[in-house]
Design a protein that fits this description.
By secondary structure, the chain is of the alpha/beta class. Helix content is 29%, strand content 29%. It is globular. 36% of the residues are buried.
Length: 254
């Protein structure tokens, strides 16, 4: 495997995970006005993996792409400070659902012609976890989702994927789409010199309509958003017999 590979990393701007979000007064979503925004944590892992592959000598260029409003430049600059070489913003003010985002990303992939697409397995705002798989399907590329280990081999990649029932090891040729699980690595902190250097790295903006002339439709609608109800306190039992009685009592209530 030569060091001529090109990696495209898909990133998203989300509310900082440490910030508390409240339901809007109309009950149709979350109020994010004035909240601190950040690079999606799962996408940070994807960026880190791409940079590590370049540092290992198997990747020649790391490009980050985001689909969203102009404010997404901040998330892209964070990725550049982590070590990405350049960035692309597909600018749109539409509130995109996963399939629409994937369709725009197809345009970015065709524009950049990468050998590998990396992305976080999900975003922390909606937690859909659908865009990487949809992107692979639209491209007709092999996919490995929820990766906890990525190894470059002679024929392509060997990827360990995290499943509910354990792990699964896949071997897939390139080009391919891989989504990152948090177990894949620990992202680096961008140093101040790296942040300053990132301001001089190329960040290109392209209108979403230039990649996809016909805007994708929507198939999802929010009926109601609400805060989860407060869970009741736990209960201690003396032994297994008391536990069985407690479960029977709870079953009758339900």
């Amino acid at each position: 495997m030569t060091s001529t590979l090109k990696v495209l990393v898909c990133v998203k701007r989300v509310v900082d995970p440490n910030v508390k979000v409240h339901v809007r007064s109309d009950g149709l979503g979350m109020n994010t006005d004035g909240l601190k925004m950040a690079l999606n944590p799962f996408d940070e892992v994807a960026v880190e993996e791409a940079v590590r592959l370049r540092e290992a000598g198997v990747v020649a260029e790391v490009v980050v792409v985001s689909v969203g409003p102009a404010e997404c430049r901040d998330a892209l600059r964070t990725a550049l400070a982590m070590g990405a070489d350049r960035a692309l913003l597909v600018e749109t003010n539409a509130d995109l659902e996963p399939l629409a985002a994937a369709r725009y990303l197809v345009g970015a992939v065709k524009r950049e012609a990468p050998d590998l697409v990396l992305a976080g397995k999900q975003s922390t705002d909606h937690d859909y976890g659908q865009t990487p798989g949809m992107l692979a399907a639209l491209l007709g590329w092999p996919q490995a989702l929820q990766a906890s280990l990525v190894e470059v081999i002679e024929t392509g990649l060997r990827v360990t994927c995290e499943l509910d029932r354990g792990t699964e090891v896949l071997e897939l040729p390139l080009p391919a789409v891989v989504s990152a699980d948090l177990r894949l690595n620990v992202p680096r902190y961008a140093t101040l010199p790296a942040v300053m250097k990132a301001k001089k790295k190329p960040l290109e903006t392209v209108e979403a309509s230039a990649l996809l002339p016909e805007a994708p439709g929507t198939s999802l609608s929010v009926l109601r958003a609400e805060v989860p109800s407060t869970r009741a306190g736990g209960r201690k039992v003396a032994d297994a017999a008391e536990l069985v009685d407690a479960l029977r009592e709870q079953a009758r209530v339900l």
